[in-house]
Write a structure and sequence with these properties.
14-stranded antiparallel β-sheet; mainly beta; two-stranded antiparallel sheet; single chain; 287 residues
């Protein structure tokens, strides 16, 4: 990171208008500012050389700076989601198109509430589910790597009564040389997130372990439906076989930072760091 970074609030202003500058200083400290009219910005010694004319301005001199941390990667933050009763199974599902499936654990959808975090993601061993709570943590992986740049449906389910954590994956287009459909289960001692929680799409926690690729139709379900039924409904675009807590549609509000929840609670999210939108999805055929 450069010692001092910054940018102007606008590219241009009219005479008499106010122009703000956003400045970040690594580690904090003071920085110097001045304004100049640039006649030639080319530092090439074979050319005319860099030339400027100093312009008197009120911002000239030293100022106190603060460190503005830069968080790489883009994600969607959902401030609140109603998760329902604490003893009902919780299911996370999404359709993904991975571009770097072998690059470590990547979070696709993470949901937290009451000190419990449930994450659905992708790793070198395929889809995984991770549960973290005050009672400890548990993780389960499907065990079959997913094809790069192909659509897959993935889901995980935590049952707080049976104390089981399941994960499942299914390809949209089957390969002849590899069966990518897989399920796995583990046992955990954690309790279920309940009440009012929050969610992060394509990130875990504040902004970590970002997923590389495309995501469509992330959903949170509550109820006793199995993962096979959830994956089938995800694949054909049908109504979920359990109570729908949230279902985000990235095709709505594309020019904005908002992400619409089409579920009953309307738990809308907000984009951070400008994720790319208006991409082709799993239903696009080219026709």
């Amino acid at each position: 990171m450069l010692p001092v970074t910054g940018y102007a609030e606008h590219w241009s202003v009219r005479q008499g208008d106010t122009l703000r500058f956003m400045i970040g200083v690594a580690g904090g400290g003071r920085y110097r500012a001045r304004v100049a009219r640039i006649l030639c910005g080319d530092p090439n010694p074979a050319g005319p050389g860099y030339r400027e004319i100093p312009m008197p301005c009120g911002i000239e001199g030293e100022h106190d700076g603060v460190e503005q941390r830069m968080r790489l990667g883009s994600w969607v933050e959902v401030p609140a989601v109603e998760l329902g009763a604490g003893d009902a199974p919780l299911t996370l599902s999404a359709t993904i198109w991975p571009t770097l499936p072998g690059q470590g654990k990547q979070a696709v959808l993470s949901c937290c509430g009451c000190g419990v975090t449930l994450t659905l993601g992708l790793g070198p061993g395929g889809a995984f589910a991770r549960l973290v709570s005050g009672d400890g943590s548990a993780m389960v992986e499907a065990g079959v790597s997913l094809t790069e740049r192909a659509w897959h449906d993935i889901a995980c389910r935590f049952d707080p009564v049976a104390k089981t954590l399941d994960v499942a994956q299914a390809p949209r287009r089957k390969r002849l040389d590899l069966d990518e459909a897989a399920t796995a289960r583990t046992v955990t001692a954690a309790s279920a997130p309940a009440g009012l929680g929050s969610a992060a799409i394509a990130a875990e926690g504040a902004a970590r372990a970002h997923f590389d690729g495309k995501i469509a139709r992330p959903r949170i379900l509550r109820g006793a439906a199995g993962l096979a039924e959830c994956l089938h409904a995800q694949a054909i675009g049908a109504a979920p076989p359990a109570e729908l807590c949230a279902a985000w549609d990235f095709a709505l509000g594309i020019p904005t930072d908002g992400v619409a929840d089409t579920g009953p609670g309307r738990w809308h999210g907000r984009c951070h760091n400008l994720p790319t939108r208006a991409m082709t999805g799993p239903g696009w055929t080219g026709a």
